[in-house]
Design goal:
By secondary structure, the chain is mainly alpha-helical. The chain is built from 18 helices and 5 strands.
């Protein structure tokens, strides 16, 4: 199961659960975010970035992680993608994997040689060194696509170039593929970070207190955040539309999901944050403030973590139910996990109902009345109808390595 796919549609059991638990919806948190994002100045990508914006975002995320800690110079998704390319065809796939292994070795050597997480040095290095490093990170981002979406990988410059001329596909050829606009975009976002709150955060922390790409191996779902810095769980976003998408409901739920999946309190998260790489803004909230803004007042954090674990163990929580049997299972599980609201309390936010001289109040406020309708609609989706002709794809999962990465070789269809 994947946290990202589980949050994508309001019809998945995971989203239905969170929609029911978050009595305030995303609006108060979004307003708080906008109050912390005072600037309208944005770094916009050059015309050569185009459809590669997602891979540019992956590259800047990894570069910023490495500024805090170099414990994992090659991230797990890149390693998994490199390994998986060996299964493509015969000679071509093996060639892509061999070049990927060369890339990983050179990237690790470069990261350690540049001493990127040394707090005695600034976050950035010489311009030519940064450009060389960014080319490696962009190439690594293409390998990550293989780990996340095999079908999407076939459209990457890496795949197309290797298939066109397998014998001529070398590491040097791979590093020539990112166009200059892509390289410049990543470097400029890094330079912006060196003059703002991210550099200040780096300066007051130590590398041993940071975890890049934290995972949650005890959870029955795959999820990898960007960075944990001494109790601050930080997610990087390179969106060009920070007000419209910087803190969407998807993003708000994603941060909450990471918090809930840390059931063993491994990372001792006490603050949640969002860093906008194109505006240089760092917005953050204490865990208590974040939960209050979302309206998670039915249960405390410890209970929420326990209930989410039960949900993930009880059904395919990241997928829309495929048939009536799956829908019934999800519905029954969600009903069983519903919180018990005492009499005299609002069924939406669980707060005591105000006294009323007339008819007894059902909800404590006009907002909860409106929110109740939204929750009812999302908890009772339209009657299930079978897909017309598309068979449900079966997940093929490779044996996970010791680090716990599980990779689906078959992309999930969006329904």
């Amino acid at each position: 199961m994947s946290l990202t796919s589980g949050l994508h549609s309001p019809r998945t059991p995971l989203r239905r659960f969170l929609d029911r638990e978050l009595s305030a919806g995303p609006r108060p948190l979004r307003e708080s975010f906008r109050a912390q994002h005072p600037t309208a100045n944005l770094l916009l990508p050059g015309p050569g970035v185009g459809t590669e914006a997602g891979n540019v975002g992956t590259a800047i995320d990894q570069r910023l992680r490495l500024a805090f800690t170099t414990a994992a110079p090659v991230d797990l998704a890149t390693e998994a993608g490199i390994d998986l390319t060996g299964g493509i065809g015969r000679g071509t796939g093996l060639r892509m994997r061999a070049v990927g292994n060369e890339l990983a070795a050179r990237l690790a050597e470069t990261v350690h040689r540049l001493d990127l997480d040394n707090r005695a040095l600034s976050m950035d290095r010489a311009h030519d060194e940064e450009e060389d490093l960014v080319r490696m990170l962009l190439a690594g981002a293409w390998y990550q696509v293989m780990a996340r979406n095999q079908y999407g990988f076939t459209y990457t410059p890496l795949y197309l170039t290797a298939m066109e001329n397998p014998a001529g596909f070398t590491l040097d050829r791979l590093l020539q593929l990112p166009n200059q606009d892509m390289v410049d975009d990543v470097v400029h976002q890094l330079y912006l970070a060196t003059t703002g709150p991210l550099e200040a955060l780096r300066a007051r922390t130590q590398a041993q207190d940071c975890t890049g790409g934290p995972t949650f191996p005890g959870a029955n779902i795959t999820a990898d955040a960007d960075l944990v810095v001494d109790g601050l769980l930080l997610d990087f976003k390179s969106t060009k539309h920070p007000f419209a998408r910087g803190l969407s409901q998807q993003t708000a739920n994603q941060l909450l999901g990471y918090l809930l999946l840390d059931t063993a309190d491994r990372y001792r998260i006490d603050t949640l944050g969002l860093y906008l790489t194109r505006s240089g803004v760092l917005a953050s909230w204490t865990v208590e403030e974040y939960l209050d803004l979302l309206g998670t007042c039915r249960r405390n954090l410890a209970v929420l973590r326990t209930v989410v674990a039960e949900l993930l163990a009880g059904c395919q929580a990241d997928a829309i139910p495929w048939n009536q049997e799956e829908e019934d299972l999800a519905h029954e599980l969600l009903e069983r996990l519903a919180p018990v609201i005492a009499a005299g309390h609002c069924p939406v936010c669980a707060q005591p109902l105000p006294d009323s001289a007339g008819h007894p109040r059902v909800y404590c406020s006009r907002w909860c009345t409106v929110r109740a309708a939204t929750i009812r609609r999302r908890q009772s989706p339209a009657a299930w109808r079978p897909a017309a002709t598309v068979p449900r794809p079966q997940k093929e999962v490779v044996d996970p390595p010791e680090d716990g990465v599980v990779v689906s070789l078959t992309p999930r269809f969006r329904r």
